[in-house]
Design goal:
Strand content: 15-25%
Radius of gyration: 35 Å
Distance between the termini: 102 Å
Largest sheet: 6 strands, antiparallel
Structural class: alpha+beta
Helix content: 25-40%
Number of helices: 16
Length: 562
């Protein structure tokens, strides 16, 4: 009998493809403005008070500019440099679009950082004629998209990452020891640049005997041989570890094969050993693909255009039940919905509603649309209706009840919280949810900071308001100057808002000091003594005397007790 295990029992070698888009931000800008392709272009970001280059196009790199360079230095080297601000959100959207494109090669695609993808090609490469044909297809697709890409294929994610950035020439980010070129005399730097070996920071050699893109494909089981000639920076370790190893003469990954792991871990930390084990496949490094985004929408195409409100509501009645079924199947509730109505002659009308709490029942959603359909301009009629739940939230299922509990719940009717949320949603459909607010207590002794205003639809009612030891006015406003003698004693006669008042009684003072750790412009007048003043006409005002500080003091009015 043969000792060869059956084919199904043989271990399957994983094959990982790493894609790096080193000019993603700049080339995203060039896709919108192709005429700038030959112009030096830099995408500039801000780190603290420093503006530095985040991404460059090929023309800018040819002028000697580099990523991470200060903008002032870059403009000095290239006066005609064109700059664009860094937009991380749009770059993330571009990378997400590339992730969807990469799904044609494998269903297992994950984003890695801001400009790279990891793809598990296990069992997929033969569909494209092999790994080299797939590799060429990737580069051809990216060239058609106007994108620069560097790729690598290996048995592990760490090895594929290293090959994509450091194999086949270019991309080396070397660490130097005491013989680094920037440490030599200025007059000898040009000669040192020519004589320096690549393991000491010089240019990496091209692979011998095979094209550069093939050099970035590691054969199955050949991770150790493929990684050996690469610099230690290819292990994804911090620069200080790379510099420390370079001072010991260890500049290539192959130099680490014979070094005891315990010594490396003691001197350079566990991170170096962990990255080395991940690259070799000793320590697993799973790839977690991004899940498909949740999308809840329904579309209804009408045989004839409609324009009456009753007809639109009838179409809405056809769309709401299946949409709510999709929401319930995923345990979600809609917080914001949009009804898009496409006119027969072209153009779109949209009605958007929001809810104070997530809902997945048509009877909770239909009345809100009914309130807003009155102002829709139908033109020659709508022939397509589309309902989209643009914002959803998790919605926990309620416990099924029976017997006496159902009867008691039916007699009690809806809870006060549900009734209030429905009222907020109906008023919000008229005036906007953001205009309906509620107050929440805050932890501050400053009168105008004792509460915070929040949107009622996106906040819960305050559970408990702290009891105040001192009375506070019903109406609180910004301090307004009062014409009175500059004396801490409550004035017998004062002028406020163009009227003259006489004091009948005054209660106080209550001294309040500003928060010393904040510089509030309203409290630069120093410590305040608050008085509850009753005038002869019956007005109950809240006055204070400011003792002066960065701003002049005096008497001010801040509230009315009603």
């Amino acid at each position: 009998m043969s000792d060869t295990p059956p084919r199904s029992a043989r271990p399957i070698n994983r094959r990982i493809l790493s894609l790096w888009f080193p000019r993603l931000a700049a080339e995203r800008v060039l896709r919108a403005a192709p005429a700038l392709a030959e112009t030096p272009l830099a995408v500039v970001g801000e780190t603290g008070n420093l503006r530095e280059i985040v991404s460059l196009n090929r023309a800018a790199s040819a002028r000697g500019l580099k990523r991470g360079q200060a903008l002032t230095e870059a403009v000095t080297l290239c006066p005609d440099l064109l700059t664009r601000p860094h937009e991380p959100q749009r770059d993330a959207q571009a990378l997400a679009a590339l992730r969807r494109w990469a799904g044609r090669f494998s269903p297992w695609v994950a984003e890695e950082g801001a400009e790279a993808l990891l793809i598990d090609l296990t069992g997929c490469a033969h569909l494209f004629g092999g790994e080299e044909a797939l590799f060429a297809q990737v580069h051809q697709d990216c060239a058609d998209l106007g994108l620069t890409v560097r790729a690598g294929i290996a048995d592990t994610a760490g090895a594929a990452w290293a090959l994509a950035r450091y194999a086949g020439g270019g991309g080396l980010a070397q660490a130097h020891g005491g013989d680094a070129i920037d440490q030599e005399a200025r007059a000898t730097r040009s000669r040192a640049e020519k004589r320096r070996h690549w393991t000491r920071g010089g240019a990496a050699p091209e692979a011998q005997g095979k094209p550069g893109h093939v050099a970035r494909i590691s054969p199955p089981g050949g991770v150790r041989q493929s990684l050996s000639p690469l610099p230690i920076a290819a292990l994804r370790v911090p620069p200080d570890i790379t510099a420390g190893l370079a001072r010991l003469g260890l500049r290539r990954i192959g130099d680490l094969w014979g070094v005891p792991r315990a010594g490396l871990a003691r001197r350079f930390g566990r991170e170096l050993v962990r990255r080395l084990d991940q690259a070799l496949g000793v320590e697993p490094e799973p790839i977690s693909p991004a899940g498909a985004p949740l999308h809840f929408a329904m579309r209804l195409t009408l045989p004839e255009p409609v324009g009456l409100e009753a007809d639109i509501l009838a179409g809405l009645d056809r769309l709401l039940p299946p949409l709510c079924e999709k929401l319930r199947a995923r345990g979600r509730g809609a917080r914001r919905l949009r009804l898009e109505m496409l006119r027969a002659e072209g153009g779109t009308e949209a009605v958007e509603v929001g809810l104070a709490r997530p809902a997945d029942r048509p009877d909770s959603l239909r009345p809100l649309f009914e309130l807003k359909l009155g102002g829709v301009e139908a033109g020659f009629g709508f022939d397509v209706l589309r309902l989209v739940a643009t914002v959803t939230e998790p919605l926990h299922a309620t416990e099924h009840k029976g017997g006496w509990a159902v009867a008691a719940e039916a007699r009690a009717g809806r809870s006060a919280a549900q009734a209030l949320d429905d009222l907020i949603a109906r008023i919000g459909a008229r005036v906007g949810l953001e205009r309906i607010t509620r107050e929440h207590p805050t932890d501050s002794h400053i009168p105008e900071k004792t509460s915070a205003t929040q949107a009622a639809a996106y906040s819960a009612p305050a559970a408990d308001w702290p009891e105040t030891t001192r009375p506070r006015p019903l109406t609180l406003f910004r301090p307004e100057p009062v014409t009175a003698p500059d004396d801490p004693t409550p004035p017998l006669r004062f002028r406020w808002r163009g009227r003259v008042f006489e004091t009948r009684a005054a209660h106080g003072p209550e001294r309040i000091a500003p928060e010393w750790w904040l510089d509030d412009p309203n409290w630069r007048s120093g410590v305040r003594d608050y008085w509850r003043v009753v005038t002869t006409e019956g007005h109950r005002l809240w006055l204070f005397y400011a003792h002066g500080g960065a701003a002049s003091g005096g008497w001010f009015a801040q509230g009315d007790f009603g």
